[in-house]
Amino acid sequence: MGAPEDCWYCPDATGPEESLVSGKTNSGNFFEDFKLGQKIQHATPRTVTLGDVALYNGLFGSRFAVQSADTFAQRIGYPRSPIDDLLVFHMVFGKTVPDISLNAVANLGYADFRFLKAVYPGDTLNAASEVIGLKENSNGKTGIVYVRSRGFDQTGATVLDYARWVMVRKRDEKAPAPGEHVPELPKVVDPAQLGAACPSLDAKTYDTELAGSPHRFGNYAKGDKIDHVVGMTVEDAEHMIATRLYQNTARVHFDHFTESKGRFGGRLIYGGHAISLARALSFNGLGNAFHIAAINGGRHVAPLTAGLTVFAWSEVLDAADVPGRSDVGALRLRTVATKDKPCDDFPYKIGNEYDPAVILDLDYWVLMPR
Amino acid sequence: MGAPEDCWYCPDATGPEESLVSGKTNSGNFFEDFKLGQKIQHATPRTVTLGDVALYNGLFGSRFAVQSADTFAQRIGYPRSPIDDLLVFHMVFGKTVPDISLNAVANLGYADFRFLKAVYPGDTLNAASEVIGLKENSNGKTGIVYVRSRGFDQTGATVLDYARWVMVRKRDEKAPAPGEHVPELPKVVDPAQLGAACPSLDAKTYDTELAGSPHRFGNYAKGDKIDHVVGMTVEDAEHMIATRLYQNTARVHFDHFTESKGRFGGRLIYGGHAISLARALSFNGLGNAFHIAAINGGRHVAPLTAGLTVFAWSEVLDAADVPGRSDVGALRLRTVATKDKPCDDFPYKIGNEYDPAVILDLDYWVLMPR
Amino acid sequence: MGAPEDCWYCPDATGPEESLVSGKTNSGNFFEDFKLGQKIQHATPRTVTLGDVALYNGLFGSRFAVQSADTFAQRIGYPRSPIDDLLVFHMVFGKTVPDISLNAVANLGYADFRFLKAVYPGDTLNAASEVIGLKENSNGKTGIVYVRSRGFDQTGATVLDYARWVMVRKRDEKAPAPGEHVPELPKVVDPAQLGAACPSLDAKTYDTELAGSPHRFGNYAKGDKIDHVVGMTVEDAEHMIATRLYQNTARVHFDHFTESKGRFGGRLIYGGHAISLARALSFNGLGNAFHIAAINGGRHVAPLTAGLTVFAWSEVLDAADVPGRSDVGALRLRTVATKDKPCDDFPYKIGNEYDPAVILDLDYWVLMPR
């Protein structure tokens, strides 16, 4: 998922310390505050509504029919349109920020990231994390915290489960390391684990004309590359509205006064914004990839700031049966997003280095009707 | 509706061809792909929700009481507040873009545009078009496609029906013309065709104080001119959020990287955005014009880009009875929108040419309580 | 609340007169149009929806758990999450603008501002005002209008009640003053009047871990100062979307063409936007201050324009019992917001003058669980 020195996500160094001034504000956890096995209940439960869905649609323009129309969703077997998978992710992720990554130097990676239950308007999301690994860096100033985070609905059922690791500063460089354990995490989610958030569908009733693409699971093969063609420029108002909607509190996204003096000359766009943009753009070529079932890994290769235009392309890394399911198949995709560079020649790496235009390298499983 | 050479809507010439690179992305139809009588089911059904309504209100600030308050709507005879007519239009129009106008050079006009059934939150919209005319241009490079497009709700009832013509490029200049037929279309919708989307009202219960204007149908006369006074500046974030909400895929609205090198130096704002702005501004002077019943014709006279301020004025072109209706009367209006020019002197044409500040010339019927 | 000469809120002088050109547009009331005891029913009732809530959340990022999650609200005794108090205020205030302050030179102050009933999604808001005071200024060009404004829900119950005074221009300087009466208004709302909009709660079921702050009423004491740490930059698209959502028609917020030539070089941000930003920022340190019960007074010390970053800090001015309530206590807070100045040293006044970075000085009561 990238070595620490590769990471661009570096909140200004003076920020979090200032929050120590007041005894009642949240200054977040530093590396030495975490303990192996520690369980953290995150704050601010959130009822997800049709209002959130509309705003998400306005910000990304997604066109997947299952999420767009109750009638389409019901016809194939959903009770109604589910909440977009990534909106669920952003809301769960947002809750973890104040406890896990307020003092982060870098967001290093994700693994074993599975959507486990569909979320519908009116459901209330909650999140909790468990510390599953800790490793102090050799410089003694920072350490890597591995957490398993879970999102729950109001019934207590898990809707999302993922491992994430993040580099966090120490408050006191002389504090002893809180332990050392590096967890083993799968490189790819097993196809047998996909589909828990997707009801059993009647694939014959899936109308590809209405969905906007004639291509079903069987039309894709390993190695296929698809340029998603259209570019989408990001404005500061847009990414701030999105990130506030998720109640994500990372100040680097919101404070131009401070960030304009920082390394990137302005507000950094939440990495998840690029994921949602790439997903929405991917409709053009992957119009029936109606559900993200799992994320195998992802890397925010370079920062994104407002005024830049995001393009994307995808490669089919694998096509797999989902055991026990004849209605859907799973495509493993790599979706690459760039800034200010169209993707008709599939920009990725130049030698061992990423093309400087690449901002996102995402490896994930989608479901498609057969 | 304006000769082709008058039109400003010119997507960059290289855009759509690029989309041919991938076999799975939608490259849209070119002139020679259309056939007279061809029927096209458009993709992506869309459930319209209270979330969409809120976002539309935030973007345009409309204040018509029927659409603003369920209590007001119910008192006069609606089951609840209907969806704003123009929001219905934008959503239906957006669906037609990938099939009809992805390779358009110019959007030439509308005619016989009628709202036929009120749409309410929770309804799901669908769209289909029929090719009703074709005419190749003498240069052999482009042709005019005439379509009749219809929006439907989940019961299959038609909510909107309109003719539109658009200039579309040929993929292959040597391809033979796909036929030639220019349909006859009415210059003005007959008042007998108005009101299908408006329930029978109890006009006495229409409270003009709550509605914000004392002027009923009888207070307006042919020739009245009204300056709507207030100006509204458009930001890029705003028009992109709106246009994505409608799932309109025309890339000229979203891609600053490409458009900044193009003819207008930036993203073009969707023409419908100016219509919605002008409609919202027209509340000041037309506060009881609660329903757009039909559009006789409209012209996007000049492009609009972000940072400019839209003003508007209206003229009453006619005042007509709606046969069989004693509750409402119909005003035929011309609403003119300008950019960066207040409308206290009603700017329109200078000789035969439009004032260079004019961006929109819209001819339509509204209903007002008697 | 500040002498007239201190006020920055000065719409361009030529604006409202222009609106007199048309007989059907609203030119608002001038000072001599008001009469002591006059009652004004404001226009445009408004059904508040979950869509409005989502957009408000996207614009301000509030994290108070009661308003965020139905489950949290229900557990402590609400039927569901109530609408954010300030969203109710902005919607009621917006309705008063066309009648009270379209010709205002300055918004001078608020007093005796009480939330009286919780508002829920689906409720419809209405507003009316009564003129409770009038005083012509010695220059004969302007006068101060004191109104008591009330917001109602669809049952006719008062949800919000406040006094406000505003300096309004005369249309005709020779017109006689319409009377003179300066009402007496309380400097602080009596704690016995707080809590009408807050149901009786089961404070034991209030989960401070889920709410995001361990500090209950008893943890705060008079004199406590809290830096809310995080800064939030405002974009033009954001404040315009917010202000249109409230159907506030003050043109200074929307018209860059005119305002760019004016005193501030651009659109002025609605003063209420700064209040909502400061409230959302105050979560960091006041996470359990779940309800604004009353506003004792407030002053928009300096204008705010887009691109600036808002910071905030608060001081506990008092901690009071609410008579008859053992579930909640009331904190009287002063929240100060600044532009482009972090608040770790609590910027406020330099001698008798406000620090030039201060934009808002708000004195209000919040409720906290005991």
TrEMBL record, chains A, B, C:
<dbReference type="Pfam" id="PF19315">
    <property type="entry name" value="MC_hydratase"/>
</dbReference>
<dbReference type="InterPro" id="IPR052342">
    <property type="entry name" value="MCH/BMMD"/>
</dbReference>
<protein>
    <submittedName>
        <fullName>MaoC family dehydratase</fullName>
    </submittedName>
</protein>
<dbReference type="InterPro" id="IPR029069">
    <property type="entry name" value="HotDog_dom_sf"/>
</dbReference>
<dbReference type="GO" id="GO:0016829">
    <property type="term" value="F:lyase activity"/>
</dbReference>
<dbReference type="InterPro" id="IPR016790">
    <property type="entry name" value="Thiol_ester_hydratase_Rv0216"/>
</dbReference>
<dbReference type="InterPro" id="IPR048274">
    <property type="entry name" value="MC_hydratase"/>
</dbReference>
